[in-house]
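Pilot study result, target chain (109 residues):
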Amino acid sequence: MNKIINNASDAGFNKMVKDYIEAREQMKIVEEYLESCKTRIQDHMKNNDLNSITIDNYKVENKKITTQRMLKSNVPEDVWNKYSSPSTHTSLYVTKVDPDMKSRRSRSK
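Predicted structure:
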């Protein structure tokens, strides 16, 4: 069920959504910075031919991890049914809405 919220009684929910958007944007900035730090560390280790280093109270290891997975189309059905493990999760999507689209949607209901 889709519902367009425009009244003050839903202000608490509106704030939750705005807080979520703001936190998601902050997290994106932090993730980009974290990736930059990771890249610089890996480059330094590679340039100095290091797989592991301990400095102050930190141990840094650069490991290559390989995982193997099966594609359903590549294995017999009985093997898939015996060894596959289903995974279920819930995702929350919050996107900005164009005000013009919102008013058009509310009229079409």
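One observation from the pilot: Confidence is low (pLDDT under 50) at residues 105-109. A full batch analysis is planned for the follow-on phase.
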